[in-house]
Amino acid sequence: MGAPVITITDMILKDLIFYSKVNLTTDTSGLDSLESCTFKDYFKNFKYDVVYNYNSRGFRGEEWPETIQEAQSAIWCIGDSFTVGLGSPYDHTWTQVLQKKANKPTINVSMDGASNEWIAKIAIKILNEVKPVNMVLMWSYIHRRHGITDTNLKRNTIIDDEQLRQHFIDSTDAEDMENFSQCIQSLLPWKNQTNLIHLTIPKYAPSNLIDQGHAILCQHYTNVIPYFRNLDFARDFHHFDIKTSEHVVSEMIDLIKVT
Length: 259
Fold this sequence. Notes:
By secondary structure, the chain is of the alpha/beta class.
């Protein structure tokens, strides 16, 4: 008899679950609702249907792989609502466009409102426990910070997006950029283990700091996607849709390590 199959649920990432969204299906989320969006006519006239289907982990997407080997060969995508694909049909999200172009499964681990501290912490957890071949990180706004009194982060626990509330701290642009730098450098111990691809969301920093942020990324990593802006808009008229997703993927597809 062969060795028993041990699933990743049995072994690793046991606490990486958003319980409030487990197996949830909804047609609105966050800014992507008629009540919350800025341009209501655009929302009402959006030509695509948008549905959010969350898996048994509470993330938007298909079920995660069953085996460690499948998890390692998949492309892990970490980010905030731009990686969730807020306001866009599932097939229009950049993670799904990447899956089709690379002909390789993607695993979307993203949260609406995620800070760069959260993105870095989740990435490190996956790098430690899964050791994937490829990981793509779409970094968030540098001003989106967790306060130093956030006991949930001090305990290094994984917390639900319904429980997580951003703690904006009184900081300068320079301090926010330094925090961004610390977040991206926290992944350096894994740069020779996993193919790390970095990019940022549109307007992730004040316009005078955007080039500085990318210079910091390029100082530490080889695979950095050039800064981009929205080429189109999702239903909430804030996040991007299919044209921008296709552009982003065209910039990264040749950087994916084939196994």
